[in-house]
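Usage

Read records sequentially. Each one opens with the input sequence:
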Amino acid sequence: MTVGAVKSVPVATELEELAGRLRRFGAEREWKKFHTPKNLAMALAGEAGELLAEFQWLTPEESQRPDPETLGRIRGELADVLNYLVHSPPSLKST
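and closes with the structure output:
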């Protein structure tokens, strides 16, 4: 699977690269101590709620073509959701 019509970079490669950048970003700020499964799940739920709030009162048509300001907020919330998803798997440990 590839992303976009021009690029031929596999999606997995792009996601791995993004995940690495996000983890380095958190490591530089010493956030790892806060990245427990509980904290990440709670943060993810909060960010998902913020994403839903951007769509709450839009019509189906408006949700497919939001105005530029709304689209910017939606993209920001999607980035926040992705950030917590990327940090979640490494924090889980088996007993």
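Summary fields computed downstream for this record:
- The CA atoms of residues 40 and 87 lie 7 Å apart.
- The chain has a mean pLDDT of 86.
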